[in-house]
Amino acid sequence: MSTSSILICGGAGYIGSHMAQWLAERGHTVTVLDNLSTGHRGAVRWGRLIEADLMDPAGLKRAFSGQRFDAVMHFCARSLVGESVAEPYPYYSNNVTGTLNLLEAMRDHDVSQIVFSSTAAVFGNPISEAIDEEHPRSPINPYGASKLMAERFLADAAHAYGLRSVTLRYFNAAGALPEHGIGEAHACETHLIPNVLRAALGQGPALKVFGNDYDTADGTCVRDYVHVQDLAQAHALALGFMAREAGAHTFNLGNAQGFSVQEVIATAASVTGVQIPYDVAPRRAGDPARLVASSEKARRVLGWTPQWTALEPIIESAWRWHRDPPSWSPHHPHAHAHAPGQIA
Fold first, then answer.
1. What backbone torsions phi and psi does residue 302 show, to the nearest 5 degrees?
2. Domain assignment present for 39
3. Per the domain annotation, does 149 fall within a domain?
4. For residue 62, what is the domain's CATH number?
5. How would residue 60 be classed by pLDDT, with cut points 50, 70 and 90?
6. Which domain holds residue 102?
7. Residue 17 is assigned to a structural domain of this protein
8. Which of 14, 91, 92, 143 is catalytic?
């Protein structure tokens, strides 16, 4: 793939910052657009930063008027399942209206390619052991519903305006690149692996396991964890695919194997050498018992080959990050916590 100028919306966040590193290392010109509500200025180490918000069409117009982009990668979204159930309006506003504002800005400035960050939450409760792209989409929380609406935008825009898009539905992003100074740095952390590792460090609130009465082998939820660098690889492959293929396309991204909450805790204990305490809490609304991907289509069509296929090295990379976070991370001992906002 030839080098390109890429706008990464949400590039100051977790997955977006890893994407910026991947692209810049391979010679692409990177520009990050982020409102820094949950992203971090210190994570923007590759390319320049435009402070703007997808909810501000005028700011988007200025961003697109200042430089020509070959493609956009869209990571901006609110993404906390439980919060979306309790407060659905901000999810539809940010994830639906914000995406529409971005697509209109792209159309107005003749940018015709986008890679969209979606989620396994569009599927709801699975009816098959491994979830492929044809699985029924019946989201059970506003977060998943908002992402599914944005997916529909892309399909309609392909038909109406010739927009080329690749939607990548992540299962559970995990891991870090501590050697590059980037990792999962949410001030309001809800993801299992970082919370387990913070518990191992004696940081943050007490670890809670939400439900141990699911219909799984040990009663705890099962999830498919995919390393953030493997996600970045898939996004880069999607750029090349869009250059060849018109239309709107979707791919599921996961390791095609599931690990329970209890298995994650046990593996983290092995990696850290610390017995990790936890309390069992009631189930969270909107949490399916099992979410495991079939990524056969991404492997076959995109040529995607995940490099991080075992749970232990994924957790080990995250452990090295959490053990020694940079000064800009909210997990640094001297950092000040930020209020939760738009998750990038």
1. -85, -20
2. yes
3. yes
4. 3.40.50.720
5. very high
6. 5-174+226-254
7. yes
8. 143
Strand partners, 50: 33
In order of 52, 169, 189, 264, the CA distances from 176 in angstroms are 26, 19, 15, 16
- Both tokens assigned to 297: 């289509």
Q: What is the pLDDT of residues 190-240, one digit of tens each?
A: 789 999 999 999 887 789 999 999 999 999 999 999 999 999 999 999 999
Distance CA 217, CA 196 (A): 20
Output the pTM of the full model: 0.90
pLDDT digits (tens, 9 = 90+) for 253-282: 998 889 999 999 999 999 999 999 999 999
The amino acid occupying position 96 is V
Structure-token pair, residue 124: 């709801």
Distance CA 79, CA 121 (A): 10
User: Which residue type does 251 have?
Assistant: F
Residue among 224, 245, 200, 196 at smallest CA distance from 295 = 224
pLDDT digits (tens, 9 = 90+) for 108-132: 999 999 999 999 999 988 888 899 9
d(CA 276, CA 261) in angstroms, rounded, equals 12
Bridge partners, residue 259, by sequence: 223
- In the residue annotation, 225 being an active-site residue is answered as no
Q: Tell me how many domains the chain contains.
A: 1
Question: Is 265 among the domain residues?
Answer: no
DSSP collapsed to 3 states, the chain: CCCCEEEEECCCCHHHHHHHHHHHHCCCEEEEEECCCCCCHHHCCCCEEEECCCCCHHHHHHHHHCCCCCEEEECCCCCCHHHHHHCHHHHHHHHHHHHHHHHHHHHHCCCCEEEEEEEHHHCCCCCCCCECCCCCCCCCCHHHHHHHHHHHHHHHHHHHHCCEEEEEEECEEECCEHHHCECCCCCCCCCHHHHHHHHHCCCCCCCEEECCCCCCCCCCCEECEEEHHHHHHHHHHHHHHHHHCCCEEEEEECCCCCEEHHHHHHHHHHHHCCCCCCEEECCCCCCCCEECECCHHHHHHHCCCCCCCCHHHHHHHHHHHHHCCCCCCCCCCCCCCCCCCCCC
